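Model: Ready when you are.
Researcher: Fold this.
Model:
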Amino acid sequence: MDSNYQPTQPQGGRIMDTFKSVMMRILAVIAAESLGVIGAGSLVGIEVWQAGVLAGALGAMKVIEALARFYLADGSLTSEEINEAFAKVDAKKGE
């Protein structure tokens, strides 16, 4: 066996790793967006949990829409495209 041999991860493994990473980041978007509006919802008469769910869902939908548009463009998603999709909802990123 060649001493420089390094086993590579099968294609399916990389896809699953990317999928897990994207899903965890979407959960983080939901949490960040939800926590940002919990107090504001009560000011306009919306239940706290409803405001959180709505804000989290809208944040996740922004990311999913961006990912879908990148995928439609060329049939693949690069790590740069994934990062750009999440940057669209990351308010701190622009500061």
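Researcher: Now this one.
Model:
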Amino acid sequence: MLFELIKGDKMLTKSQLAILYMVASVACFSVMDIIVKYLKDAPFGQVLFMRFFFGMVPIFLLIPKEKMLTFYKTNRPGLHAWRASWGAIAIVALFIGLRNVELADCISLTFLGPVFVTILSALFLREKIRMKRISAIILGIIGGLIIIKPTFEEFNYFYFMPLIFAFGFAQVALSIKSLSKTEPNYLIAFYFSLLSMLIGLATIVNGWIWPTLYEAFLFIVLGLAGGYANILLTQSLRMADTGLVTPIKYLSLVFAATAGYFIFGETLKITTLVGALFIVLGTYIIFKREETLKKQVVPPRYET
């Protein structure tokens, strides 16, 4: 357990701890998103590298001591490569989107991930989609179009980046469903992080900056926040019913809107509010449906 909290002279219940873990996860993801946007003038590859270089710290803390020298071994290299590749595509698209799209718009569109998971599950896993999930998909698509529509007039194609992230997220989610049956979380996270780090490192030939002390601090926080966000999310989902903690993920929309206004001077548009409402409603229908069927529920945001 990452930390323990005492309420009076009694331990908090598992449900209360799960909620706190989820809130902490949302806060860490939000900190990562804000720093990526704040460092938009730094070389893109350097930011990507720093995110996963320092993000390796939480991963290695999860590896049992007796497996420290052999943790990387796997019998499923192909699926790890598939998951890592789509994860890298998704995170690159997300970082590009965060740099070039208003924060609230970008984060709202990333919540389309579960909608893409549902569509791909029907296409490739032959899962049946009934009216509830069809309505959820329609709501999600409408929400996305409401947010993107104004940008078509300005030809801001960067709005497609969070959609690419959401599609990549769906591929990752389906891969993790299979990998998690035999592979530990730290191994799944390791190969994704390693590939993303190497992609970032490859851009050093284009020139990196020598960071100031403040920028170096932000790089460290960026990596640790991104790494711990996933650990906290996983811990939360293990300790309580998904229906209890998953809605808390939508706090990230509040954090994004607040940070966008106060840090980046962005004005929250009515189209963002309405579109986000449609997307949230659609994804929530999917969560409740999956929970009813006792299936593995995919959270709205999961990188590793």
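Researcher: Key takeaway?
Model: The CA atoms of residues 230 and 304 lie 6 Å apart.
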